[in-house]
Amino acid sequence: MLKPACAAAALMACLLTSTAVSAEQRYVVKRGDSLSSIAAQQLGAANRWREIWALNPSIRRPEQLAAGATLRLPSAGTSTTATQPSAQGGKQQDSIETDPAYQLALEQIKSSNIRRLRQNYRLLDNPRNAIHLHAVRHEQDGLYLYSPGYTQQTSQGVQYGIFEPSAEPVTSSTTELTRIGSAKLALQQGSLAGFHVTSSLKPPQENALLLPINTKTTVIEPHYPAQNTSVEVLKALYEQSGGYILLLDKGARQGLAPGALLKLHQRNPVESESGNAMEFPGHAAGWAMVFEAGRELSLALVLSAQRTPAVGDRLH
């Protein structure tokens, strides 16, 4: 029989043990939950959602947070929040490898998704670097693309990507290209070259361009821009097999390079009493990584987003 004091002490010990265990237990997602709402309810601050994100690598997109899913939560009194970029826009090297955005980017690189995106989406600053077509012909053994003025010394069988220019370009100085197929050099007579189409998602038109398929293994290292950069989304491509792709209004000339990690902010327009629309900084809503950088524009893959990114959203 325990004395009252001993019983109270034992009860307190049990309560403390239970509290410590519950702090480390899982959380079952309810309908309508978001990472920020879970962080507000369970951790006391909505901006601690990255800690939950870091502990649950299976949750990388909003639609993956389904009711009934089980999440790990940080232990009481601990924080897994990674160091944020400094005022100079840099990142402490000793913390970047544990950063959630870095890990997301690394997953995309290791899965070869970034390599495929770099093969399928291009920004062409100089049209002279591409092979222009003169005719598209159906021959007995398949579809052929013909180009005049072909002066390259290339052996037959070399693979080229067939790229379709955007029907709605945002600027005339950069051509936005999407790969729709592949072709190989089949014949060359003087300056006339014929390319045999080996695969295509749709019939190529005469405005299609040919570019060598990038087969080199380019090492892309996720990193934060060396200086603060404010970037605006000019175009959002939603229905792409590789994920959400954003066309950004900054490129290599402004310091962006493949691997650059940018924080996504949704637009936050507020109408004043006079009726004028004022733009306020929006809440951080996800991350994106640049995978193609032209001189003035760049393409980025959305790594995570609380809401669907849209034209006018900003990245920093």
Question: Tags for this entry?
Answer:
Membrane-bound Lytic Murein Transglycosylase D, Chain A, 316 residues, LysM_dom_sf, 8-stranded antiparallel β-sheet, elongated, alpha+beta, Elongation Factor Tu (Ef-tu), domain 3, 32% strand, 6-stranded antiparallel beta barrel, Thrombin, subunit H, disordered N terminus, 6 helices, 3 domains
General description of the model:
The chain is α+β, with helices and mostly antiparallel strands. It folds into three domains: 54 residues, LysM domain (Membrane-bound Lytic Murein Transglycosylase D, Chain A), CATH 3.10.350; 103 residues, Beta Barrel (Thrombin, subunit H), CATH 2.40.10; 89 residues, Elongation Factor Tu (Ef-tu), domain 3. Helices cover 19% and strands 32% of the residues. Strands 3, 4, 5, 6, 7, 8, 9 and 10 form an eight-stranded antiparallel beta sheet that branches. It has a six-stranded antiparallel beta barrel with strand order 11-12-17-16-13-18. It is elongated. The termini are far apart.
